[in-house]
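#onboarding

Welcome to the new folks! Below is a worked example of what a typical request in this channel looks like: someone posts a single protein sequence, and someone else replies with the predicted structure as tokens. Don't worry about understanding the tokens yet, we'll cover that in week two.

Example request:
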Amino acid sequence: MNLNDLLFYSLAEAKAKFSQVVEEAKKKDVVVTKNGVPAVVIIEYDKYRKLMEFLEEILDSYLLDIGNVEKYLELKKYFEFNGSQEV
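Example response:
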């Protein structure tokens, strides 16, 4: 990851310019900092969706490879609850 490919905003600045931040996030990933520490990342929705699909595929492949069905179902349930829930 190259930091030059990211845009950074403080929380206060992101709140004040939220529409602008959303538009910029369509082109570059945006990091919002709180007290100078990265807190969240805002990315374009299609990129997020593709990333989550990719991670689910990797998880499925890994869990199927280890052959532990109980662990597979446990982790699959966890990621369905905590991961990508489409709007």
